[in-house]
Structure formats: C-alpha cells, structure tokens
Amino acid sequence: MAGARDEQRQHLPGGPQSQGEDCPEGGGENGSASSGRRTGSDLGFYTISLATAACKQMIELRMQSDHQNSGGQLKVATKDAAQASDMGDWETGGATYQAGALEPTKGSLKGRGQEEVLVSGCLRLAGHHLLNTVPLPQVVDGIEVYGTKVHCKVTSRFAHNVVTTRAVNHADTAKEVSFNVELPKTAFITNFTLTIDGVTYPGNVKEKEVAKKQYEKAVSQGKTAGLVKASGRKLEKFTVSVNVAAGSKVTFELTYEELLKRHKGKYEMYLKVQPKQLVKHFEITADIFEPQGISTLDAEASFITNDLLSSALTKSFSGKKGHVSFKPSLDQQRSCPTCTDSLLKGDFIITYDVNRESPANVQIVNGYFVHFFAPQGLPVVPKNVVFVIDVSGSMHGRKMEQTKDALLKILEDVKEDDYLNFILFSGGVTTWKDTLVQATPENIQEARKFVMNIRDQGMTNINDALLKGISMLNKAREEYRVLERSTSIVIMLTDGDANVGESRPEKIQENVRNAIGGKFPLYNLGFGNNLNYNFLERMALENHGLARRIYEDSDANVQLQGFYEEVANPLLTDVEVEYPENAILDLTQNSYQHFYDGSEIVVAGRLADEDMNSFKADVKGHGAINDLTFTEELDMKEVEKALKERDYIFGNYIERLWAYLTIEQLLEKRKNAHGEEKENLTAQTLDLSLKYHFVTPLTSMVVTKPEDNENKTAIADKPGEGPVDAEVIPSMAYLSDQLPASPDTLLRGWGPPLHHPSSREGRCHLLQHRRRARHSAAPHSGPCHRPHS
Fold this sequence. Notes:
This protein has 4 domains: about 5-135, no CATH class; about 135-365 and about 670-789, no CATH class; about 365-375 and about 570-660; about 385-570, von Willebrand factor, type A domain (Rossmann fold), CATH 3.40.50. It contains 15 helices and 42 strands. The longest helix is centred in the last third of the chain and has 18 residues, at about 655-670. The chain is globular and about 80 Å long.
C-alpha cells in the first residue's frame, strides 16, 4: 500500500546465458560500471554478489548443492575466495549461510546488518539451482516496501482497523514514498502517524477552522503533503507522500473505525489491496469477537486466482471468535515464477454473521449499552410499490437498457400479494395503469411488455412524477385497494436534475414532504454523476428513506436489482424500541418505519444508573399477521460474565460505537436542518468528533512534522457524498485556492528535496477527503496551484 514511482525491473548477470563468461574489469554487465542496487532473476536462477573493496581480479565462486550427500548444505568451492570477497555471513530466501560449508538456518535476506545485499564486483555463477532459496525483495526506484500489514479487530460489529506500511530508501539520494489506503466511505479516520528514522509524528483532531489556520501557516511556507478523495463505489482514497532521505526508513500507520452494517444477512469488511510491488512481509489479519457466537465466516479476494496464492489464506471460527489470515510469500505474490509484477491487486472481502437464538442481543460495558435487533422467520409484509423511472433523453443508450433489464428481473421477484405500478417521466408523466394493481401472473406478464417498450425522450419532470406516484399510493390506501396489513414504498430512479415544471430543489422537496406526510419511505437512486445527489439524499432522508448512487458501469442493472433485494422483504413496520422511563440517556435513533429481512436495527445509549441490577428493552412493531412485541430482560452480572474475553476487546468499544452511531445520525439530521436547529446539531457533532478523535465533515486531523525549525503540516478531512456543501465543509473554500482541479493530482510531501527538477509551486501538506463532484471549485493562483496542460 506504499510504493515508489517509475517502477523499473533490472536483471542481474549470471543466468545460464552468462555461465562460463569472465566478468570484465569494472564489475558491470558488458564491461560497464556497476549502476548500484539491482534485483531480478533469470530462468529461476537468483544471483547474489557481495561488494568487494576493488575488482582487480575475478573472484570465482562456485556454489553447488549435493542434497543427498550433504543434507542440503551449500558449499563454496573456494573458502579463500569467499574470504577474499569479504563475504562473511549472509542470508537469502529465509536461510542463513556462512563462508565455507555450513547448515542453513532460519532467517531473512540480510548482509552484515544491511537491509539488502549490494550487487557489485565481478563474478561468475556456475553450478545448479540453489536449494531453499527464494527471490529477493523488490526494490523500485531505490525504495523497498518491506512490510505492509492490515489488522482488523472487530468486537460486536464495531471494527477497529490499523493499516501499517514500512519502507526504506536504499538510494543515495532522497526519494518520494507514497502511502495509499482505500477505506470505506462509512468509516471515520481516528489516527494517522508518520515515523521517520524512529521519530513518530502523531495526528491530532481539531475543529476545521483551527486546522485551517495551522494549514495556511504551512502553505505560506510553500510546504505541503497528500490527499484523500473518493475512490469508486464504496471507498475513499487516503494518499500521503513523504520525501525520505537516503538510507532512511519510514513507517505510515492509519487507523479507522466503522460500525459494520448488516445487508442481506451478512456483515462485510471490504479492503482494497494494491501494494504496487512485491512486499516481503505482507499480511492481512482479522480477529472477530461476537458475544452471540459466530455462525458463518468467509473471506475471498478477487486476485486469488491460483492454488498457490489460495494456500496463503486461512479462515476459522469457533464459538464467539473468528480469525482470518492472509500472508502470501514473495513467490506467492508473483504473477509468474520469474516476474516482478504482483498478483495482489483487487478486493479482499470478509463476511460473517452471528447466531440468533433470540431476536435481540444487548451488551453493556462501562455504563454504555448497544442493542441489536434482527428477528428471524417472520412472514413478509406485502408491499405496495410505485417505480418512478426517468426516461428523459439523457437516459438514452446503455443506461436505459440496463434499467429495463433490472426492472424485468425485479418483476420476477415480486410476490403475488404485492401491488405495483410504473410511472415514467420525461417532459411529462406517463403511467402504466391508472391505479396500483396486484402482482398476479397475468399482470406481471403485461408489466413486462410495458417495460420492454419503454423509450427515452424529452426532459426531466421530477416534481410531477413523484407527486403522481405518492397520490396513487395514498388513494389506493384510502379506497382500500391494497391489503390493510401492507406497506407502501416509492422508488425513484433518475440520472439528472429537474429541468421542466417545478425545478427548484427546495420546492420539490417541500411538495414531496407534504404529500407523503411521513406515511411511507422514499428511496432515490441517482444514476451516474451528472445530478444533484445531495438533493436526492436530503429528500430521501426527510421521508424515512435513503439515497443510493448507481454507478455507470457494466453491472448497473445488477446494482439496481441489488438495491431492490434489500427492501423487497419487509418483516415489520412502525418499529419502536422502548426502555424504562428515565433509565437511559443520550439514546440514538429508536424508531424505524421498516425492518427488512437480512438487515439489523442497532440502538445505543448511556445508562442513567451504572449500578442498576437489571436491564429491560421492548421492541414493538406491526407484522404481516398481527402486532408483535419482543422483550429482552438482562441480569447485569450475567452481562459482565459474557464479556470476559478482554484480549479480543479493544478499549471502550461500546462507548465508541455509541459515539460513531450518534455522529452518523446527527450528520444525517443536519442535512435537512436550518437556523438554530442546525447550529445545535453542528455543536453536538463537533463536540463528539473532538472527544472521540473522529475525522468527520466538521473536523480535521492535523499532523505536524518539525524540521529545520519549521513546521510542516498535513490535514485530513472527511467529506459527504456528492457536490461539497461549503457550509458543511468550510475548509474546501481555502482548499480551492491550493488544489488543482484534477482529482488525480498527488501533492508532494514532507522530507528533504527530491533530486529532480521541481515545479515552481510549493509543496502542499494536505490530507483531504475530496469527492469527485461535478460542481467542484475552480482552481486559483496560489502556492500550490498547478496550471492545466
């Protein structure tokens, strides 16, 4: 996850084609002078040469192995020659060898205390393949990334992840080292440290305005560092670059936390793996502790395509504990036996679920509690669904075909007790039927014909289409056209902004809110990037739904279908989670319009009395057949006994889970708040973010590295989805003066100057979450401005 730029592969002399040829004076290949460090291989021969004081005569080392006669010993043909070359003790491929004939012992590549063996001098390799040897670690442009570790520690769905990368600069000049981590958009960064030559520079979370002043001071000196931006569907990319002096080591460590949400019956940890070079010590480990007990655990990676690499992955679970480990050797990482390209590029996904002997589980630690609720085996509540589909001209082509494919697939999954209708909108509004109809086989067949004949045309009238769909659902309920114990849902798909009829987002939002009246949820699916996603999200959240971006890709139809599957099976409606009066403080959201099969409701809070002897919780909801109440009563002493495995539990995990969930929900409320309410929500969110060291849209993490009596500062921010709201992320105002418009630009970092021509701008130290927004600010001149080419 760190790497040097301009990867070069260099081959050593001494393969079969060079056997029997003398090495000319000067030590280099073809008589040229040695160019420094080299790594490589030829047809499985791994060659090592040790530095000599001078190459005045050829030193011939013939290393050969007689496995049967010497038990795997390696013999140097001429001990005097080995001593003359100052060979001494050395290691390769996990085995240590000494001059002469000695037994190999466990070890790693080293040479007299050095991190790698210098290749120089004159030699000729004769003999056979060496036993017990593996390729040397890869050095790219002088930089060796010798360690990358991702350690995930999960306790009760709350994940604490630490990503560590270690690198060393073998070159004789300063080199730039980049640290890249892609982390989930739902995660909060909690710490970042940089260690150079044993000195650690920690990060501190501060209010944005405070961080801004510290940042601007550094920018005024023309010194800056890195970048965090959106990266694909689920991830944000954290990038920081550091200039590392010759012979120096650097360690990057990033920590982030998130609450794992249950989707389709599983919790998922999603890791992006892309070290960009072979890494000697590469490791991913996950330790999972679930008091309910683990029922399933799996791990897979998109890049594991052969048995050799597959053998590096282990996974196991028993009782409350689960473990996943992925530790590929250098050989296992290679794309072929003699290649320097790494196979490690893609997604690494861990999924698991827990035992559910009862519908609910409550855990209490140090005065904070978390309540998980996910009943099983309930009958599905029938749905009344209106699909509001954008068929404007911008949907032409693949987007329209993918939408139709998804709708046809969804029609296969609609249950006969469900009622549905389609509303198409462009400049005007068209309906399939005048009212909702039952999903009988005959009606489904007719609906399929309607979908297949959909054509794109015209403009985008979001307001009238949504109001038509909402009115249809309200009327069906009022006229008893749908089942009494059923639930209504509006699902809208659009790829653009309203541009005909009522086009003001605020007015559309008001109209929709008044029409729905809190009776059912609205789910907004935004297709592509050319739309106001913030508007779709605000409108959905205000009406107890959510927004989801559908990415323009070959699997867009699968994304659409996947979303429908999440809401296809409601098990309860109007869910209320209740606790004894005055027993709980600082409660997170405890009422939900729907509980869907395969999901989970999570409520957390603080106990008013930590010395209470018992804990009671009631969950009430409307089912498909009758109203249901689920009661959970706990003996506090028994709760404490259940959480004794402290080796698997990190810190006050329930308190941090509560803080994470509270911040997440406050930020959602803030999106639709105004005036004094918004100020209060902002203050609450900021206080919690600072107290628990979370990088949120209201805070920044500042990392300062003193050097040469100057402070060089980096800042990490957390954005929201879609175009950036300057009020939500005030630091973007000054970032627009410093950042180039291109989202792919990597700003240079800390450390001594690089020995290559530099541009006139300063080096900007900024660790900034940056969404690829359509309305991003234009660049201005400034110390970090780079003109477009």
